[in-house]
Design a protein that fits this description.
The chain is mainly α and 72 residues long. The protein is 82% helix and 8% strand. The protein has one domain. The chain has one helix and two strands. Strand 1 and strand 2 form a beta hairpin. The chain is rod-shaped, with a radius of gyration of 30 Å. The chain starts with a helix and ends with a strand.
């Protein structure tokens, strides 16, 4: 009978340990997700700036007859 109680207690301890490890891993994954989201947001801002620069260049630059770009 005591042996059975000890086994149950050991099982509970193992389960708690596994739950703690799972929770720690999940927190780490959540933190990495936040970092990835921030990087993607920054990357989006960079691409938008590049697109705006390209739009500006297309709108305000003309090509001369010999192929050299100059600003009007």
């Amino acid at each position: 009978m005591d042996n059975l109680k000890e086994q149950r207690n050991e099982d509970k301890r193992r389960r708690l340990e596994f739950e703690k490890r799972i929770k720690a891993e999940q927190e780490e994954i959540d933190e990495l997700d936040k970092e990835l989201f921030e990087i993607i947001r920054q990357e989006k801002q960079i691409y938008l700036r590049i697109l705006k620069l390209c739009e500006f260049l297309i709108k305000y630059c003309k090509t001369s007859t010999n192929g050299i770009l100059f600003v009007i």
